[in-house]
């Protein structure tokens, strides 16, 4: 787990340096011509629709920021107003570099550890403030890129921009009530929810990790873990490693323009590796096989099919998974119906990763990881 934090440090540092070196000129040109339109076929076809007025976004931004201040200041959250501004500023700064990397690789490097790191030093001993700072700094960026992603898809599908805007706003507003209702219902009706031995595996892994992070980064604080002579102080060198790695490949690409160094994406090298844990070798192997089949074999051998149906196939698989989840929960789990047992849904449960036996306990009996006292 400590290595995961170090790789996250490196990925965040590599993001800024990589996008500055490899995409800096492009960012500058696009920023100067932000009010202009690209003269491609998609833009020309979309000109028949009315654009979303800028003041719509400005009003939405003002309303959301006002609600953020009310949330932080009207209740004892221990997050000061200037802390909220810093969190929002982080989201603004990092949206562009993370979006550029995600746009070309479909992998989003998260700001969760970075925001926890910043607020842990800035406001130590405030776990609730840490969770809010993380939400406003990290989730704001993630939601912004999700919004942009939907706008991009609507642009290619020739959907009216104003319809997309209101669809996003209304759906987001409605989801606030739906998600809260689902959580309240689940906590009151699912027996043993959030426990490790819950029969249907409603173990709340995301909620558990979020709470554990509030203790590690908010209550204990990173200064006790990563600073001075602490046990994990060496992980701070990952910041320098992440910042230096893109420079190496950039210099190589400048000296040998045709070398494959120009394709090396260091934020993805660090960001992809940090998923271990919680991802297992089974996850990575599955990703590699599917990626090779669709992005290498089919793309090279059946280019016409790939251009026409690859994206649709991906969307169909995602939709099928969502529908299947609803059918399984409503049709089987909530009705206590025994699910059919066959090798496809039992073999994975018998692996060492699932049973937790792949972890080797190297701590002597009676000892613990880390210092015994702070």
Automatic annotation (TrEMBL):
Q: Which UniProt keywords apply?
A: Membrane, Peptide transport, Protein transport, Transmembrane, Transmembrane helix, Transport
Gene Ontology annotations for the cellular component aspect, listed alphabetically: membrane
- Entries under InterPro entries matching the protein: Oligpept_transpt (IPR004648), OPT (IPR004813)
Q: Which residues form a coiled coil?
A: none
Which N-terminal stretch is annotated as signal sequence? none
- The UniProt record lists the keyword Lyase: no
Which Pfam families is this protein grouped with?
Answer: OPT
Q: Where this protein primarily resides, as one coarse class?
A: membrane
**How does the protein associate with the membrane?**
Multi-pass membrane protein
Listed transmembrane segments: 6-24, 55-76, 82-101, 164-187, 207-225, 237-256, 268-294, 315-334
Any one biological process term the GO annotation gives: protein transport
As for subcellular location, the record says: Membrane
GO terms of molecular function: oligopeptide transmembrane transporter activity
Give a yes or no for keyword Membrane in this entry.
yes
In terms of PANTHER family, this protein maps to:
ISP4 LIKE PROTEIN
The record's comment on protein family reads: Belongs to the oligopeptide OPT transporter family.
Know the name of this protein?
Oligopeptide transporter
Record the organism: Emydomyces testavorans
